[in-house]
Recover the amino acids of this structure.
């Protein structure tokens, strides 16, 4: 049974004292705690940057702010959440023995220490940032190899989702090494290209594979009137669209403006893909899920994938008509990153954390409230891109809402990972 499919009623006993040794009791504890720390740090960092900018203060930068933002927000915390999920659900998917968290400790610490070096390096010196990202790439490569080892040892008939995830994670390792090299040599276009490939071919692909496997299963389990419908062609179409976006995003970095014919080709791919995914959100039970908070959170995240591609199609059509002089700006990007990736991450991590801490498998008022603050942050950031006259104000409000949601989640659930399960069971 995948993580979070069953839960127990919480104990009435007083919470046990926290201790870091509990991080080694299960892979999700270690991965999610490290991810929560990175999530809080990056949220506070970017909020501080924007508040300083609004106050007329210009921090020192060794790397341009957009490139630094894309690197940290795209690859800072999400891979660590993927670690926590994959080494919890992955062995069950693949029919392999459970993975001990202790075996993951060294590479996770490499990733964390790498970001601890890279973050100040983005402000102080690009070579320092490069050294930090190289440490991150080393840790992530070791984690990828660990998962690939599980995949190769498996003999279960269905290894499709795990194989897609393993391929995407390997691409992620390659992009991290490319980012480190780009920082070391001062090739910012290469850095930005690496983060674009990582976004589409690594992070978004992992999320798409997990969504395809888990959302219909969770929905059918909670709502018996729904079936766990997930034909494999849906996965292949979604992954193909995501991977097609990567070279086009890279091409846009080098060859601006792109020919109108290429913009129309982008629209021709994105518009039907958006329609398919929006229909799929309904087919998988978006409306029915509203009865169950935790399920609604997951469906609400998936809805943003279709919306992101719809916004991208409109933007590319407008660019084709205007010779690339007008577009929807960063609205599609933030619908994808903050909307689909951010809200799905929030929902999935909340589900796993609740079920594997011995608590009821449900979103209480705190989780539900933080989730809607996150949704408000997404809407504000998308609106900021669509309303140029209010961009600065709306972006600042959006990042403050993001901080409230994500730091709030990290504080609350991070506290669970360093305490024993409330039901007294191991793990």
């Amino acid at each position: 049974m995948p993580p979070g499919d069953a839960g127990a009623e919480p104990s009435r006993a007083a919470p046990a004292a926290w201790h870091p040794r509990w991080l080694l009791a299960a892979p999700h504890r270690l991965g999610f705690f490290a991810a929560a720390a990175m999530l809080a740090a990056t949220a506070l960092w970017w909020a501080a940057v924007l508040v300083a900018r609004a106050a007329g203060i210009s921090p020192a930068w060794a790397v341009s702010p957009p490139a630094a933002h894309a690197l940290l927000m795209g690859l800072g915390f999400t891979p660590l959440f993927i670690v926590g999920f994959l080494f919890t659900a992955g062995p069950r998917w693949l029919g392999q023995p459970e993975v001990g968290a202790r075996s993951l400790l060294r590479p996770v610490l490499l990733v964390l220490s790498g970001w601890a070096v890279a973050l100040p390096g983005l402000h102080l010196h690009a070579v320092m940032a490069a050294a930090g990202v190289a440490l991150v790439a080393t840790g992530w490569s070791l984690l990828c190899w660990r998962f690939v080892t599980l995949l190769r040892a498996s003999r279960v008939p269905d290894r499709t989702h795990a194989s897609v995830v393993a391929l995407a994670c390997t691409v992620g390792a390659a992009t991290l090494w490319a980012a480190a090299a780009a920082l070391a040599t001062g090739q910012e276009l290469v850095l930005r290209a690496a983060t674009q490939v990582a976004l589409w071919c690594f992070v978004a692909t992992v999320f798409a594979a997990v969504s395809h496997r888990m959302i219909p299963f969770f929905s059918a389990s909670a709502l018996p009137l729904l079936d766990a419908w997930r034909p494999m062609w849906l996965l292949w179409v979604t992954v193909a669209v995501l991977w097609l976006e990567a070279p086009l995003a890279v091409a846009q970095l080098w060859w601006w403006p792109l020919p109108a014919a290429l913009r129309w080709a982008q629209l021709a791919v994105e518009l039907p893909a958006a329609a398919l995914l929006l229909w799929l959100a309904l087919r998988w039970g978006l409306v029915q899920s509203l009865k169950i908070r935790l399920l609604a959170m997951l469906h609400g995240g998936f809805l943003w994938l279709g919306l992101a591609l719809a916004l991208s199609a409109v933007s590319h059509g407008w660019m084709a008509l205007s010779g690339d002089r007008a577009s929807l700006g960063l609205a599609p990007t933030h619908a994808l990153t903050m909307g689909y990736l951010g809200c799905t991450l929030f929902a999935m991590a909340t589900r796993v954390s609740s079920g594997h801490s011995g608590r009821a498998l449900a979103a209480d008022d705190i989780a539900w409230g933080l989730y809607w603050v996150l949704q408000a942050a997404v809407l504000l950031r998308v609106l900021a891109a669509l309303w140029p006259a209010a961009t600065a104000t709306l972006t600042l409000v959006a990042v403050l809402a993001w901080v409230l949601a994500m730091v709030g989640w990290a504080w609350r659930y991070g506290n669970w990972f360093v305490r024993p399960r409330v039901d007294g069971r191991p793990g």
